[in-house]
Amino acid sequence: xxxxxxxxxxxxxxxxxxxxxxxxxxxxxxxxxxxxxxxxxxxxxxxxxxxxxxxxxxxxxxxxxxxxxxxxxxxxxxxxxxxxxxxxxxxxxxxxxxxxxxxxxxxxxxxxxxxxxxxxxxxxxxxxxxxxxxxxxxxxxxxxxxxxxxxxxxxxxxxxxxxxxxxxxxxxxxxxxxxxxxxxxxxxxxxxxxxxxxxxxxxxxxxxxx
Length: 210
Prior knowledge:
Blueprint: E1 13-14, E2 19-26, H1 36-44, E3 60-64, E4 67-73, E5 80-88, E6 93-97, H2 99-103, E7 107-108, H3 112-128, E8 135-142, E9 148-149, E10 172-179, H4 185-188, H5 190-199
Parallel strand pairs: 1-5, 7-9
Antiparallel strand pairs: 2-6, 2-8, 3-4, 4-5, 5-6, 8-10
């Protein structure tokens, strides 16, 4: 098990700034709720942590009146969270992160890999609660108006020096869909990935996973 941070009881606040986020939830009501201690037990079961933020280098856990989560602080000893994964009593999971967009303040980095990784892990967490797919997802990025999209270079190609990528004219990009548990994560989240490119006025490269 990972060593979670321990210390006196404190209130945790979320860092301000542009963010990426993903929600995963049952498509039908599970007919029950889970207490915070049950969600914590499931998150830590078997030594495989499935309730983790988008990006993290150290993990602490937090509890609210309606669920349990994990977070990565903005700095050692800080009570401000830069990235959070939170499971609600209703069986819904949220992941929110401000770290990735803060690394590149003028750009939209290629975010597809962290989205697909978290989709798999959050689906595994819900399955562990006894909630079977399909799951509904809603995801997006916010605070990105006028940023430049970082487009991956095709295999066996080189990036043109000085090309900064297409400009995003939307401050928020949101999409939603369904993950049936059999699709590839990229296929399940395709509407989100396509929306990011569309809002930047650029066709999503055909070599990227679909």
